[in-house]
Automatic annotation (TrEMBL):
Residues 27-46 bind DNA. GO terms for molecular function: DNA binding. The keyword DNA repair does not apply. It holds the Pfam family TetR_N. This is AcrR family transcriptional regulator. Keywords: DNA-binding. It comes from Bacteroides reticulotermitis. Residues 4-64 form the HTH tetR-type domain.
Length: 196
């Protein structure tokens, strides 16, 4: 097994154990036994449980980043693409948090610790928003004075509603059509979308 496959397996086993038993209740020994790797192998890749926890979070963010990139590559109008990227992101984060069971409590409690790992994801996301905005600008769908600033603002707005969205405090009582109307008004009002 190659180095990267071994590390990926350790991260996957840790993800499953964290989801089932909780991060606090999972030991490095549990991860080594469940992965059928020795403790020495585990410590070759990760110095601590905290390090492997952050690797699990990073792995989930890489999957999310790939999902968003696929949406950005779809053949659709930039305005529809922007909304789909936003919904893909929010729904995927919500699904990851809920799928991982006991990780949910850690996600909300340790959100600032997770922030260190998110820096790379955040940079990719801003670039993705920027690319869609540039496409929209070049096709005359958006009229934006500063694309870099608009991409950063969209990123921080979406990031800001992440926790309330996951907890069901935003839009939980709205049907999809009403929710889409509100989101469209906010996003497209800021982007000065033209009707096409």
């Amino acid at each position: 097994m190659t180095v990267s496959r071994t590390k990926a397996k350790l991260v996957d086993v840790a993800r499953q154990l964290f989801a089932k038993m909780g991060v606090e209740n999972t030991t490095m020994n549990d991860i080594a036994l469940a992965s059928k790797k020795g403790r020495r192998t585990l410590y070759t890749y990760f110095k601590s449980k905290d390090e492997i926890y952050l690797a699990v979070v990073e792995s989930e963010l890489d999957i999310l980043s790939d999902m968003m990139k696929k949406v950005s590559e779809k053949d659709m109008s930039p305005d529809k693409k922007m909304l789909e990227i936003i919904y893909t992101r929010l729904d995927a984060i919500k699904e990851v948090v809920y799928r991982n069971g006991t990780l949910r409590a850690n996600f909300f409690r340790d959100i600032w610790r997770v922030e260190k790992v998110r820096k790379k994801f955040d940079a990719k996301e801003i670039q993705l928003f920027k690319a869609v905005l540039q496409e929209g600008q070049s096709k005359g769908v958006f009229h934006i004075d500063d694309i870099d600033m608009a991409a950063a603002i969209i990123h921080y707005c979406v990031k800001g509603i992440e926790v309330p969205y996951i907890r069901g405090q935003i839009g939980a009582d709205l049907d999809d059509q009403t929710r889409n109307k509100y989101v469209s008004n906010i996003v497209f009002g800021a982007l000065h979308r033209t009707e096409i």
